[in-house]
Amino acid sequence: MSNLSSYSQALQQLLNSYASDQGRDELFNQDGQPDVRWQPVLQVLEELGLDGLAERHEEVQQLLHENGVTFNVHEDDLGQLRSWELDPLPYVIAGHDWDLLEAGLIQRSRLLQALVDDLYGERQVIHEGLLPPELVYTHPSWLFAAADGNQRPEKPRIIFQGMDVYRDLQGQWRLQGDWTQAPSGAGYALENRILLSRTLSNLYREAPLRRLASFLQAQHRCLASLASDHRGEPNLVLLTPGPGSPGYFEHAWLANYMNFSLVEGDDLVVRDGQVSMRTLGGLKRVDVLVRQVTDPWCDPLELSSDSLLGVPGLMQAARRGEVEIANALGVGVLEHPALSLFLPKLCQRLLGEELLLAGPELRWCGEEDHLIEVLNNLEAWQLYPIHQPGQLLDPKQLSLDEQQALTTEIRQSPWLFTARKPAQASTAPSFDARNQVLYPASINLRFFCLTDPEDRQSRVMPGGLAWVGEPGTPVMQSQTVKDIWVLAPVPQPHVSLLRQAQGPILVTRDGRDLPSRVADSLFWMGRYGERLDTKARLLRETLGQLLDDGQLPLETTLLPDLFTALKLPLPPEQPPLAAARQFIQLREWLMTLFTDQAVDNLPWLFSQFLRNSRAVRDHLGDDAWRVINNLRQKFNGLNGNLGVNSARRHLEDLLVQQAAFFGFCNETMPHHYGWRFMDLGRFIERLLSSLELLKLALVTARQPGIPLWEVVLATTDNLTVYRRRYRSQLHPSAILDLLLFDESNPRSVGFMLKRLHQQLEELPRQEGSPFRSQEHRLVIEASSHLHLVDLDSLLDIENSQAAREALQAFLDALLLPLSQLSDALAHSHFSHVEKPRQLVSLQT
Amino acid sequence: MEYLLEHSTRYQYAANVTLSHNEARLLPRNLPWQTCKNTQLNIFPTPLRQHERRDFFGNRVVYFAIEELHSSLEVTVTSQVTTYAPPQFQYGTGPTWEEAKALLAPGSHKHALAADVATLEARIFTLDSPFAKRHSQLADFARNSFSSDRLLIDALQEFNQRIFQEFTYQPHFTTLATPVLEVLENRKGVCQDFAHLAIAALRSLGLAARYVSGYLETQPPTGQEKLKGADASHAWLSVFIPGYGWMNLDPTNGILPNQRYITLGWGRDYADITPLKGVMNGGGHHHLEVAVDVLPQNP
């Protein structure tokens, strides 16, 4: 089969047109024939053809988009929607190649463990002149506070790490970089495998590739076993910098997958020496902290004092063994790119072995001869400034002046600069969906290595994340990612990866141990979602009125009142306009609600809703999340040139999606505290907006009367109910009954108050307190106003000024306690403690 | 000399503090020329947790956390300190400053002379640190004392003298945030500023210098009795002479520290040896009082 001639003509053509004219391509062996390891892939290509492959490609992108793990938070919430593409063609590694690579990666992991233990312990490698101190001590992740004389710790400092590899033109694996602090990409690798096994199910079921599920089980086991000294069921949390960080969605995904609580620095506090999580039910001790926050930001007491991401006292808690941190604080210094230059000698010294995996071609300007070489031909190099993590400078892109400034900077502190020669990697077939061709793409590979805390044995995930780009291209900058296949001698049983790799079942996620911050975000997600809904309904009705009456003199229409309800000022006064011109002006004015980012307009409301949903990503089901992604796409596509009818259609669509979202939440979220806070948010918002609207329609409107009441009923989606029940003209007393008192109507104030009351009853209370909470009292106050009101005094609002005043007083009496409800809830449950701050240091 | 050292720091907060995590570097370390006996650290309110360790530079650090509601914090250290003559550095001995610089240069681990651990360990003090960064103006300032082929020990003594003579000791003119370049321009400051300035200038020449925090016994004006609490913390610097060790300089007083100096600890600059730092919840504004006594004990 490895002979080209044994493939069908179509495939032969395809391969002939696969222009890998330069360098080295993984598809072909030395004889120029497709290597046998690609056979399953080629077979699928043969079966599907390029058309079929394009179809699958489309399907994969759809799934990728919906699952949202690649949700890119770099851009504005409403900016261009961009996530990378997942190539349906994997990168294939033969079994014997893998053995070599795996051995090299495991050696690398052992070497880094030994090195970091020495650096934070006795520092022999520095004292023996094997590693220059300037290299170590200037790295931002070098933590003096972690070098506190502790000898080799009982547990490995690195549990889980990532390693970037490429294959050079000679076919040698080269280790391009290490990720020891917060290795990212494992979530993406898994997600890619899951999506592709769904899309190319036959291929993935039958191909003899190594499976990933057992690795993940092992990862969970290793992390949990870090807590072996602690009593009882260990509590594992994943510390994320928060929704603003580029890796946030992977953090949420991993936390869910591993069944950890996703926490931010503010959720944690060190008390009585222990690290605890602030939850609705009080403090809950944390045993293992899986951190995704980089070293310098983890503890404002001992590390960067301006950190808002960290937890004061965390270092000390870790030092005392009160909490296990994976990976240990300070290991980020191993990510120094120039370390690779010193590893051959260090490997000899620390392990007594030859280093198996070479690094890329590097120079470290801290060495005089390297410095001279780099400065002699600056444009031939790319530079990593170690004090600016994540930066790669390309002098070719700089102006002469900038190059001059860079040269001065390098001369001033040469040890801060590591130079790299742009390298070439071997290529592998990738699918270009737009042009429907195969092309040879330069590939980067990230592998993941796990070290067992009990026996210190390391293992490598037999697969990983591949991405297209020159060696060293950051994964986030790549357009295309790929699955990595490691071939096994025989087909391996397919184990579903879908949420099966969890460890022992832990206590429920949504009970009293719900982080207070999560409750807060769920509450506001509910409020903003509801406010968005109300706004969309009002706008829809307003646009309807505009169609009907937009060309009549403005003051004779309902439009001024509806603009008030929308909190939109009328367009500035102008000389009397032609009717058609007025219509256009009003339409444009209303369309700003779609496009303008100002507070309380639709895009702003949506971005607030999105921000809060994102902060609780791990509490939302995938279906609910899919709706959010759809909405996000819709908002991205909006522009101000909508016609009135198409704008109405957009709004109706928005309403349906919102209903779907909250429907999914109601159907899939456990009806515990988290859900209750979301529901409270929704109903508080809905109550407030209903009352405001009633007040406008019945009391304060310029044009009170039947047409406006009709709009109110339509806005609250009650028009049909009303018509069915009364089959008559609109009458204020019937409207009041339907919207205020009828507890069987889900949109009535009576119903909503009852709902709030029920939800509040179920919230955690302060133990032992016999008193009702403030929020309880506020709801009771509003309810009693509702129940005790003298209905007769309100009925004649059409004719009696006194009735109108009584109604206004009544509505205000309802609004007052309800408007205080939100703050009362926040005070009782969200415990927004003051941010910790620094004691100002004293001076001599 | 024998001294009774007492250093107390008191913070009074405008609002209650609910939780505070702190680090104190207030316990003097033992040295070949200094022994400390009966050292005690008293903290009020009494911390729930208190642990001592050595930091990277070998200083004694006490971590403590106070978890009860408090509106003031008082930290007092007392110690009986005996001091002896510190290592002496003779005029006319040791390497030239250029030789020292070459031995301390990065990459110099390749040649055998520099392979001694002390020199390797000293190299961290040639690097920039938050309060003492290298700069060409500082190098220019220092170079007047560092003519070519001059012996390092001789040059340092002159440099020490020059800062003492050209700068005015003036409290409250600078703050902790005043950059050394501003101190250089205004030629005014306190001991901390002069130490940082000297360190940054010596680093700008490629030498290794560290910040030393401690105390100095002060003498009352003749005929007056010494006032209680009138002493103060002091700061000076220490410079590495390859093959010889660390030489202390006190540019604030223009002398080489002697038996009347008590060493608390050292670091790259003030940030490494801050006497008391903390992160707290609550507190609002605060008022600070510090009292230091260095009382000579009659044998």
Descriptive report:
The complex is a heterodimer of chains A (844) and B (299). With 844 residues, chain A is α/β, with parallel strands linked by helices. Chain A folds into three domains: 445 residues, no CATH class; 46 residues, no CATH class; 307 residues, no CATH class. Chain A has 27 helices and 20 strands. In chain A, strands 1, 2, 3, 4, 15, 16, 17, 18 and 19 form a nine-stranded mixed beta sheet that branches. Chain A has a four-stranded parallel beta sheet with strand order 6-5-10-11, with helices on one face. In chain A, strands 7-8-9 form a three-stranded antiparallel beta sheet, with no helix packed on it. Chain A is globular and about 100 Å long. About 2% of the residues of chain A have low confidence. The longest helix of chain B has 15 residues. Chain B folds into two domains: 106 residues, Immunoglobulin-like (Sandwich), CATH 2.60.40.2250; 161 residues, Roll (C8orf32 fold), CATH 3.10.620. Chain B has 299 residues and is α+β, with helices and mostly antiparallel strands. Strand 20 of chain A pairs antiparallel with strand 12 of chain B. Chain B: It comes from Marinospirillum celere. Chain B: Keywords: Hydrolase, Protease. Chain B: This is Transglutaminase-like enzyme, putative cysteine protease. Chain B: One of its GO terms (molecular function) is peptidase activity.
